[in-house]
Specification:
The chain is of the alpha+beta class. About 35% of the residues lie in helices and about 30% in strands.
Length: about 160
């Protein structure tokens, strides 16, 4: 069973004020078990974000509050994506639904000469939620990676010892 895999590289760092420079070892380690946990967490966040977003536009019915403005709906969707940390991993399309009714003005029955008025009920509805497969795959590929930095020389500490420290 593979516990982890990794590599290391050296880089030179310096202070902008002084002419002081030093060398650092960067150890990049990837654990398959940690990667699986990250991928499962990402999938769970994607599911929760989808259910929360679908709750923003409930089906028509009594007691349901609908978002009427498209800008408000866009802001609400962005807040959900940010809260679940899945920005750029989903795309959402919505449309504006307008329902018009023309009742008579005042009480009683209508007639030919009676005045009518137009009432519009506006509702913004999410029509489609799609996963951005390329972005999700790129993020999943980075899951489980950690970069560790040390100034201990390779002669003093091996990669395994540097990771344990």
């Amino acid at each position: 069973m593979l516990a982890a895999e990794g590599y290391e590289c050296d880089r030179t760092c310096g202070a902008p004020v002084d002419d002081v420079a030093w060398r650092e070892r960067v150890c990049v380690v990837r654990s398959p078990m940690h990667a699986n946990q990250h991928a499962a967490g990402l999938e769970k966040r994607l599911r929760h974000a989808e259910t929360t977003r679908m709750a923003l536009t409930p089906p028509r019915g009594r007691g349901k509050r609908h978002i009427t403005d498209e800008a408000t709906l866009g802001e609400a969707i962005d807040r959900v994506l940010t809260a679940h940390r899945v920005d750029g991993l989903r795309s959402v399309t919505w449309d504006k639904q307008v329902e018009q009714t023309t009742p008579y003005v005042g009480r009683g029955r209508g007639s030919v000469h009676r005045e009518k008025r137009v009432i519009q009920h506006i509702r913004s509805d999410i029509t489609h939620i799609a996963r951005q497969a390329d972005a999700i795959a790129a993020l999943s590929q980075r899951c489980g990676c950690k970069a560790l930095v040390t100034n201990a020389a390779p002669k003093r500490r091996s990669l395994q010892e540097a990771v344990w420290c």
